[in-house]
Each structure stands twice: as C-alpha cells, then as structure tokens.
Amino acid sequence: MSTDFLELRNLSKFYGNIIALTGVTTTVNPGEVTCVLGDNGAGKSTFIKILAGVHQHDGGDLVLEGDKVRFASPRQALAAGIATVYQDLAMVPLMSVWRNFFLGQEPKKGVWPFRQIDIDEAKRIAKAEMAKMGIDIRDTEQSVGTLSGGERQSVAIARASYFGARVLILDEPTSALGVKQSGVVLRRIVEARDQGLAVIFITHNPNHAYPVGDRFVILQRGRSLGNWAKDELSQAELTQLMAGGAELEQLQHELSQAGAG
Amino acid sequence: MNESDNTAVADAAASAGGTAEDGSQDQDERLAHRGPIQQLLTRPEIGALLGAVGVWLLFWLVSAPFGTVGGTANFLDVAAYLGLMAVPVALLMIGGEFDLSSGAMTGATAIIAILLAIDVNGAGLGLHLAVPLSLAFALAVGWFNGTLVEKTSLPSFIVTLGTFFMLIGAKLGFSKLFTNKVLVEGLDEAEGYDFWNGIFGAEWLRNGHLWDERRWSGFWLVRDEIWAGLLIFGSLALLFGLFELTYERRATVSSTGVAVSLAGAAAAVAGFAALNNSDGRGANTIFGVLLAAGVVVSVAGWCLARYERPGRSERGVSHRWLQYSLAGLAAVGAAVVLAVVMNAEDSSQLAFLGGAFGRSVFAAGIAMVGLLAVLAAVGRVSPGYPAIGAVLVAVPAVSFLVTVQAARAILFGGLAMVGVALLWGAAARVRPAVWVSGAISVVLVVLAFFIQSEAGSRKIRVELFTVLLLLALALAATAVARHMSASRSAAPPPPAFGRWTQACAMLGVAAAAVFVVVELADGDGILYALMTGAAKGGVAAFLSYAAVTAAFTLFTRSEGVGRALVTVGIGTVMLSVAVRLLFVTGAELDKICTVGSDGELRCPQTQFGVVVLSFVMFAAVGSWVLTRTQFGSWIMAVGGNKEAARSVGVPAARTKTTLFMLVSAAAWITGMLIAFRLTAVQADVGDGNEFRYIIVAVVGGNLLTGGYGSALGAAVGAVIWGMISQGIGFAQWNSDWRFLVLGALLLVAVLVNNYVRRRAEKAPVKSGATRPDRSGIAIIVPESLAGSTRKAEKD
Questions:
Q1: Exposed / middle / buried, residue A211 (Cβ in 10 Å: 0-12, 13-18, 19+)
Q2: pTM (2 decimals)?
Q3: How far away is chain B from the Cα of A33, in angstroms, using its nearest Cα?
C-alpha cells in the first residue's frame, strides 16, 4: 500500500464541535479515477478543500508519495501537483481561449520594460493541449463565452494538466450540464486518466461515476460509508448506497431474491 | 465587397478542405481564412475609428479651416486633454471599476502644486518640492480608492463618489483658506518655474524645421515630395500587403512582373510629384493620368509577379452588375453636379424651416411620435414607426443648426458615398470582367478632372479632385488584383525575419537614447526631450524595419512579408500625415510665409502642445499594455470574472489598486499640463469631466460592465469628441445647440460601433461545420453563425 501515489487515512475535519468529515480512507493513483459520491451536505466540499489546501485536516493522515503532508494554502497544493477544477469554472467568458488557458501564468518574451506575452506560442500551446484532450478548437482567439459547457470544462482540465497537475480534482463537473454535455465531460475524464493523471471525480450522480470510476468513496453526513474498488461493487449497489444506505440495500436484496426464487 | 469576399473565401476553403491536418498548426480547416480587413472589423475600436473618419469627413466638407493644420491642432488639443485621461479610465473600466474622482483630481493636483509652491505668508516650498508632492498626493488618493474598494467590496461608484465630493470640497476650501479667492494663481512666480515649465509647458511649434532651416532653405519644395512620396509609398505597401494577406501566392516570382511593377511605381511617384508642383491645368491632366496609369501598371505588374491567374471555371457573373453600376454612376454624377453647381461659400443658416411651416412640421411630428408610440406600445405598428415622427420633429430643429454650405456638403457626401458603394458592389459582381471596373475607374477619373476644371471653390477643386482620383485608382487596383488572383484558404505565415525585427527595435532604442541626450543638451525640457527623442527613435526603428521589409519583398521569395508590408504601409501613411501636419509644406509657403529683410523666412506658427504628444504616447502605451502584456490580460480578467481570475493566481486586488493609481497618475499629468498652460487655476477646474472620460471610453468600444474594450478606442473616442466640439464652431453652426449635436453624434457613433462589431463577429465558418471530431463529439456551430454563412452564399 505504501506505493500508492496519494493516500488518505481516516481523514477528519472538525469545525468546532461539528464533525464535517470523518474516517475517509481511500487511495488515488495515476491513471485511475477515484470517485467521491455523496448527497448535498455529505462533506464533499470539505473533502475538496482539504485536498486543495483551502482547509487543513484535523485528524488522520494525508500521504503523498509516502510522506505525510499538510497543505497550508492552495498554492502549496498546486505546487504539489494537485489542481482543482471548481464547479463555477475559473474562466473569464469575454476573454479568448488562449488568454484563459494561460491566465496568471502567461508565457513571456522580451526584456523587462518591453516584456510581453508570447502570443503565438500561447496560441500554439493552447491549441495543441486542447487537441490532446480531443477537442479541436477552431480558433483559440474565440472567446470562452462562445464555448459550450463541456468545452469550457475541457479548457479547465487541459489547463490543469498542462501546468503540471498530477492529481486533478473535478468538483461536480457534470451537475450543471445536460445529458449530452455530461457525456462529453466524462469522456474528458477518461482522456485525462489515460494521459496518466490521477483524477478525483466529485459527483452526486452514480450513473456518471460508475462508468468512469476505478474506486469509489461514498460520503454520507460527513462519514465515509466505505471505500470500494470497482470490482467490489456493481452499479446497482452503488446507486443503492447513494440512495438509502445499507438498510435499504438489504431490503432490496431480499426482495429481489424472493422475486427470483 | 466583404460579403462577396466571404463567399469566395468560404468556397476556396471548401475546395481545399481536409488538407489542413498536416499543414498549418495555427489554422483550422473548418475556419475559413479571414482577410485582414475582416479581422480588423472585429476589433472593439473599429466602430470608433469609422465614426472618427465619418465625423472628420463631415466637418471637412462643411468647413474650410477644419481640415487645415491649424484646425487639426485645435481639435487635437481638446482631444488630447480628454484622451490623456480617457485611456487610463478605459483601462480601469475594463478592469471593472469606475473612478468618479478622476475629473476633480486633475484640478486638485494643479491646485495642490500651486498652493504648495507659491509664497503664501512667506512659506512657499518651491516647485521642486510641490510638483512631486502633488504626484504623491494623487497616488495616495488612487491607492486609497483602490484599497477601499477592494477591502470593503463596495461598488467603486459609491467609494469614488465620496472621494469626488471630498476633493471638490477640499479644493474650494483650501483655495479660499490660503488665497481668499476661488482662483489660485502665481505659478509663474514660484521658484523652479522655468525648469518645470520646460517639462509641462512645452509646445511643439510647426515651423518648417524638417531640416535645418538656413542650410536647406533652397530646398523648401523638397518637403512636398517628402510627404507626398511617403504617402504614395505607404499606400502601395499597404495595398500590396493586403493583397498578400488576402490572395494565394504563386510558387515562383516572375521577374518581368517585378520590373513592370517597379516601372509603374516610378511613373506614379513622378506623376504625383509633378502634379503636386504644377499649377497649369493642362499639365495637371497629363500628370494625373501618368499617376493613375503608373499605379495601375504597378499593381498589375505586382499581381503578375506574385499571383497565378486562377482557372476561369470557378467564376460566375451576377446579372445585377449593370443596374449596380448605372445606379452608382448616377449617384456619383448627381453628387458631382450638385457640388459644382452650388459650390459658393454660403455660411448662412438654413432658417427657412423655422417659420410657420417649420412650426407646423414640428407640431405634426410631435403628434405623430405620441400617436405612433401608443400604437407601437399596444403592438399595432412596428416600433420603428415612431422614428418617422421623430425625424419630422428633428428636421426644423436641425435646419437651425446647419448652414447652407453644410447642407449641400452633407447631401454631396451622402450621394457620393452611396454611389461609390454601389460602384464597388458592381465591381465585386463582375469578377471576370475586369474591364467594367476599369471603365468605372476611367469615368471617375474623367469626373475628377471635370471638377478640377469647373469648380469655383478651391476646396472642391483640389480636394474633391484628389479624393475622386484616389477612389478611381483604388477601384482599378482592386479589380486588377481580383482578376489576377484567387483568395487564400489558409492564413499567411508570419514575417520570416524575426531577428531583423529585433535588431531594428534595438537600433530604435539606441537612437532614441541619443536623440534624448541631444535634445537635453539643446536645453529643451525633459518631457519634451524624452518624448521627441522617443518619437525620433521610433521613426528610426520604423525606417530600418521598412528597409528590411523592402529588401525581403524584393530579394527573397519569403512568403511572410504580407503582415510586414501592412505594418510598413500603415506606418508610412501615418508618417506622411505627421510630416504634413508638423512642417510647412511648399504649397503653403507662398501663401503664409514671408521673407524678412534679413533674408530669412518667417512663417506663422501653429502650436501643438506637449499634451498632444503625451496623448499619443498614452494611447500607444495603453494599447500595448492591454493587448500584449500580462498586466493587460489581468486587467481584462479581473473585469470579466474577478473570482475566476483570483482562483488561477491573478493578484486581483493589486491589479485593481494599480489601475486606480494609474488613473490618479494620469490625472496628475493632466493637472500639471493645465496648470502650466494657464498658470492660474480655478477651484472647480476639471469637475464633471469624469463623465466625459467615461463617455469617451464607451464611444471607443469599451464595455460599461468591464472585461472588454480597447485603450486605442478610448483615444479615438476622445478625438471624435474633440472634432465634434470644435467642428461645430468651425462649421459656423449655432453653438447654442452644441450638446444636441454632440449627443446625437455620440449616439450614432455607439450604434455604428455595436452594429459593426455584431456583423463582424459573424465569422465565415464553412457550411456544414457540424462534424464529429476525433472523439466522436460534434462541435456545434451556433445557429446564428451557420445562418449568416448560408445567407452570404446565396447572395
């Protein structure tokens, strides 16, 4: 187990006497998608914020490549290669694709008083990186506002992976999208995984999680219901766990057995 | 022109489709190549630019002195004081904030500097301390504004409104406290006045010093050829550059074509130079024809050298070209007859509509507006109808403003423009028949010479002649190029001489340093020395760049000279205009200059304040910062989506505070320029200007809500404002109505801006662009885009 890239052991977070998150254990590895499922208020946001460095955990361990770590700021998490693509998308709609892609980390050329953005280089890289994600941007000069929701997600994902992310946290990337667009984003997740990224996919939709996930963590009311690999769990079981927990599952199980018999 | 161009481009792209995979890395096969003119049309400042050209044309037609150097200096001065502030205000607006204290701040810095410097009760600090202190004050207020807006998250509108009132109160209060007056004066008696006046009070005299006056006084007439030659060279470079960017190259360059082209160019230059110096009308005709033929031969030679003649199969003739050309010719002819028949200088007001008839039209109009507005509100008539009533209301009102000459000029301008547009359309419709365009050009040339010989007023005789001749040439040249070449399907490569460009830039910087030192040693003010030095260095860099471009164009087969040629063309045309504005030309010499008893020439001097230089610098630097630098990207990001910008590591608070401080620093410069020009400052100077800055920025295409815009646009907006506010005086319109005209023209400018941008943003996308990409996911072209393409193709 010590070879895991990122390991969470009994991770817990308390706000005063409120238990926001407790007992979360899972592993995240390159080329794998770890899905974190939970209903509203289950502690998904807290989970993200701990990994992204916004909050610090109070109990348990966060182990990165064998070392216990604790991120004091988002910058530290980013430096460690953990990039987060938030639900509200860090995109400026009126700006062009390439400007958004490089926002905050523009490639520059020239000496100081005349230092300017290397626009041709930026456009070239943005186009190439988007092509790697399987999105063929017509013109990197077009504004992000003209892109569809799925394409915007792709820009954010491509940006994270280009700037050296090894772990990509996607916060509810499909929640605001239609069925077709969700498909686009799920495909991007698979593509990011195939490029060797470790993906943490936060969602409340087991139908989205099961096809792409390799490992599932289910959160309920701040507690982890468990940590399963894909072969330990069927999609129906996952849905059941999400919907009503073990008791409901038990009932369902008995009913279906009776029906079969 | 554009519409049919798009179609051609889209067709060409369709035939070349699917081959882009291996080739260009920047371009996508689904995106038809857009010609440079179309790319320009998507820029935010394009509407303002078109508006500026329109307003300039209007006043140029209406008033004789407006187009002269004196008139230009006059409106540029107004524009510069406004634009100096409008550029940073536009940047702040793009960053999503307003600074309502910016207007009051200009006056405040002036008052602080004077109050601190002058000797009140024996305690003056002198200007060496007072001027930097006022800058410190301005920066502090800017920092305060920015920090308060950031820390409290209050709208900047409220915060800076507070600062605005505080500044107004403080200005009045302190002025009265120290001087017991609302006028603060005595700057010119303060210690250190000469030094600082050399910086902020400098004026750029237009006095004919292109070369040293005495040594070169025998060569006064050379100067005409300088600017005219620059103009011709620049126009040709621009024309060829645009062709290069729009049309396909052939594999090998034909040297015969190059030789023909050069011979034509030489003939054109000779023709223009001779035309410029000759007064005989018969000779003018010959030289004019020489010029026209030279340009056409030069363009044709170039096209022969560079482009293949495409197969005839893809061409088709539209049957409407005859109607178009007849209508166009009729309109142009009517305009010309109108101009020639009524070319007296009559500046009396058009008051005939102001009598009983006017009153009844006015009343009817108001009644119609009311009635139709009610009908439109209940959905009975289209909302456009009340506009008819509004026009009826406007007619008598406008007739009070406009002089007889102006009405004629507007009529003439409108008719001529419609005619030329129709002719252009006709030329675009008959692509295989180059002779139709040629015939139209010939007709235009004949008309030009007809005007030249018949018109009584000098303005119409000389200037309309030139305009018509240029139009004819442009039409003929475009027709030849269209005939010889096919449209590009892929974007042309960038210039192939990047290293040379850097060397030119280095040379420019070095030259600028030398020039600054020389100017300083001459005893000119620091600001003046810095700015003229930088300008001269820029010219040096540009000239070497032009030389490199020319060498590459003539001696290599590099594909990537198109962009460089366009740059050189625009730069040279601007240089030509600058030479024309800043130096006395030979044609003016006889009229305005006299030879003194000591044998030296004395010419009346037109003064461009140093403010105009500062304005140009601000516009250039602001535009560069916004579009090319990291800080510019950050400005757009914090204005467009602050949270998003912050989450990817943009220091949003610092960016905004810097912008506020930038506005304050610009206010300080403006305040100093005002103070040193007037030496005495009213307590309320600058109050209320903040709204002008914002209006000018909006006219320039900046979004009121932030995140999008252009610094150059704001500068152009300032020029529009300057032209309108001064032009009304030049045109001898009733100046009581100034704000009515100003408001209406601003509205028109903004509407044109919006319209042009919306049209231009409809990119020509290949039809059937909905196609699966590699991952099997369709990239869907928005309905509106696909629709517009289809429409363009039907045409």
A1: middle
A2: 0.76
A3: 19
